Amino acid sequence: MSRLVVISNRIADPRKPAAGGLAVALGESLQQTGGLWFGWSGNIVEEAPTGEGELRVQQAGKTTLATIDLGREDHDSYYLGYSNDVLWPVFHDRLDLANFDAGFISGYRRVNQLFARKLLPLLKPDDIIWVHDYHLIPLAAELRGMGCRQRIGFFLHIPLPPHIIMAAIPQHEWLMRSLFAYDLIGFQTHQDVQHFEQYVRNEANGEVKGQGLYRAYGQTVRCRAFPIGIDVDEFAALTHAKESREMFETMRREYSSRRLLLGIDRLDYSKGIPNRVRSFRELLANYPENRRSATLIQIASPTRETVDAYADIRRELESLCGAINGDYGELDWMPVRYIHRMVARKRVPGLCRAAAVGLVTPLRDGMNLVAKEYIAAQDPADPGVLVLSRFAGAAEQLKEALLVNPYDTHGTAETVQQALQMPLEERRERHQMLLSRIRAEDVHWWRRTFLDALRAAESVR
Ligand code: ADQ
C-alpha cells in the first residue's frame, strides 16, 4: 500500500497519551503504512529571516515526524494574521471580526511555499498526501508548481461559508482556485458542499458536473462531505478509567441534590458561550424551580489569547458569569461555575457522564466533537440530554438531539427546560439513536472513507 503523508499546521506524536482522537486515528494509518507527518514544530525563532525554517526529522515508531520552525514575522502573519484573523472569522460568518490587513497574505503564501519546499524532497513517487485545514489551503498548488504529481487530498475542519461571505476576502478567488490543485476536497457537511457548489456557479462561472465533480478555472476537482467522528470505543473505555470515575463520583457527591448542565469548549467566539450563559440566566428567571437546583459548569480553555477578539470574549464572559452569580447566587449555591482552564482529557468523560444536560451551542462550528463525546460518555440506562446548536456541523447527523438556535436566548432556555424535564424513556430512546449514529460514522470510518476515496480518485485535473 502506498505511504500516507499527513500535513497539518501542528502535529502530535500519535504515541503520546495526551493525543486526541484525531491524532490517534491518523496515527493508526501512519503506523500501518510507515507514514510521514509534516507540520510546524510550535517553535518561533525571533530573529529568523522570512520564508526560512529549520527542518527536524525524527522517528516515532513506524511514523516519521518532520517539523519546521517558523520565524516570528512568518508566524505572526501566516498563523495569527491570515489564518486566525482572516480565515477563521470569515469561515465562521464573522466578517465583523476579520482583519484584512494587507500584510498578512504574503506571510500566508510564504509559509505555504516554505512547507512545500521543505516537504518536496521527503516525498516518494507513490505517496498519498493528505493536507489538513484552513492554514494550508494553497499547499497543493505550491507543490504542483514545484512539480509534485502525487495524489493530494484536502480536508477542511471548519465550515465553508456561503459564497457571498467568502467573496469578502480580498483573495477569495486565489484561495478557491488553489483548491482545484487537489484531487479530492473533503468537507464536514453537505451544507459546506452546497456552499462550494454555489461558489463554483456564482463566483467562478464554473460547472457542476454531478457525481461530486466540479469544473472551474480550466480544472476539475472532486468534492464530498466526510463528517468527522470520534473514537467512540476509546472514549467509552475512558469513561470507566480511574480518573474519569473519580471525576464522576466527585461531581455526583458535590452536586448530589442538583442537576448539572455542562459546556466544554475552547474559549472561542464561535462557540457561543456568552449566548449560552444568557440562556441559562433566562432559564433561572423564567423557571424559578431551577434556582438552587441547576448548576451550569462552563469549562473554557484558553486559546489564541494574543488575538484581540479572544480577550474581548473572555472579559464578556467573566462579567456575565459574575452578574448571574451576584443576582441569583445563594450562600450554598453558585448558579454558574466558570473555569478558564483545560480539563485533563481523561477526566472529560466522567464530567460529561455526570451532566444531566450537555450544552453544545456554537454560533457556528465545522462539526463539534464535544457533542459526540457527550453522547459516548452517557450511561445508556440513565442518559443525559444533548442540547445542540443547529449551526454546528454535528446537527446534520445528530437529529435526535434537541436542536436550538443559540441566538434565540428565550427559545434556547425553553429547550433546556424541556431537556431537564425529559422522561427517562424518551432520554433512552434518543440516546440509543444518537449512539448508533456516532458509532456508524466514527473517526476510523472518517479516515477510511476519505483515504479510500482519495486512493480511488483518478486524476480529473
Ligand atoms: P475545535 O474548534 O477545537 O476543532 P471541537 O470539535 O469541539 O472543536 O474539538 C475540541 C476537542 O478539544 C474535543 O475533543 C474536546 O473534548 C476538547 N476540549 C475542548 N475544550 C476543552 C477543555 N476546556 N478542556 C478539555 N478538553 C477540551 C475544529 C473545528 C471543529 C471540528 C474539529 C475536528 O472547529 O468544528 O469538529 O476541528 O474536525
Automatic annotation (TrEMBL):
It comes from the Bacteria. The keyword Flavoprotein does not apply. It catalyses: D-glucose 6-phosphate + UDP-alpha-D-glucose = alpha,alpha-trehalose 6-phosphate + UDP + H(+). Keywords: Glycosyltransferase, Transferase. CDD domains: GT20_TPS (cd03788). Its EC number is 2.4.1.15. Pathway: Glycan biosynthesis; trehalose biosynthesis. NCBIfam families: trehalose_OtsA (TIGR02400). PANTHER family: BCDNA.GH08860 (PTHR10788:SF106), TREHALOSE-6-PHOSPHATE SYNTHASE (PTHR10788). Probably involved in the osmoprotection via the biosynthesis of trehalose. Catalyzes the transfer of glucose from UDP-alpha-D-glucose (UDP-Glc) to D-glucose 6-phosphate (Glc-6-P) to form trehalose-6-phosphate. Acts with retention of the anomeric configuration of the UDP-sugar donor. Homotetramer. Belongs to the glycosyltransferase 20 family. This is Trehalose-6-phosphate synthase. It comes from Variovorax defluvii.
